[in-house]
Amino acid sequence: MAASALFFMMTMFVFCALQCSTVTGFDYQVGGAEGWVVPPANDSKVYNDWASENRFRPGDTLRFKYKKDSVMEVTEAEYKNCNSTRPSFFSNTGNTVYALDHSGPFYFISGVSGHCQKGQRMIVKVLSSEESEASGGSRGSSSSASSASCAAGFSKIGFLLYVLSYITSSLF
Ligand SMILES: *[C@@H]1O[C@H](CO)[C@@H](O)[C@H](O)[C@H]1NC(C)=O
Ligand SMILES: *[C@@H]1O[C@H](CO)[C@@H](O)[C@H](O)[C@H]1NC(C)=O
């Protein structure tokens, strides 16, 4: 009996490990450690520079960290004009996770008056799976957050396995 329980646990673990590496997208913290803030006057392109250093794929997530600010997803025209009247997405929680659910461009601006004009805006281009196959290469530089969430996933799995093994051992 112990052997089959062990086998079950191993199977679970391998299954979860595969999920972790293939299904889970990357979690990019926008702007790195600085987060989502009004950029300094001499560096107003900071977010587009940051975005162009990363290779986003469908299933990845963007994490915006900020204080007393907000995030909006808008159209290209609204991005250019810093028009925040009709965002298709709005959040001001301070820790916004936005799922990049399809390929193509996404346009983000700050919803706080004047911030977008000072450069707190960003275009994120999400590659289609063909494009990312073709260009190959490694993932972006900001991947540490996602390995952390992967690790968190593993510790949950560890707990689950502990509970399972407890149940199995009390049954037999
Ligand atoms: C902007 O100015 C600060 C302080 O003067 C400096 O440390 C920083 O390197 C400058 N950044 C750019 C992109 O020029
Ligand atoms: C802002 O966008 C809305 C909706 O897209 C539009 O109706 C409005 O005229 C725009 N305002 C400016 C100042 O461009």
UniProtKB/TrEMBL annotation:
Signal peptide: 1-25
Upper classification of the organism: Eukaryota, Viridiplantae, Streptophyta, Embryophyta, Tracheophyta
Record's protein name: Phytocyanin domain-containing protein
Species assigned in the record: Eucalyptus globulus (Tasmanian blue gum)
Keyword check for Cell membrane: yes
Family from the record: Belongs to the early nodulin-like (ENODL) family.
Membrane topology: Lipid-anchor; GPI-anchor
GO cellular component: plasma membrane; side of membrane
Domain Phytocyanin, first and last residues per copy: 26-128
Keywords: Cell membrane, Disulfide bond, Glycoprotein, GPI-anchor, Lipoprotein, Membrane, Signal
Subcellular location: Cell membrane
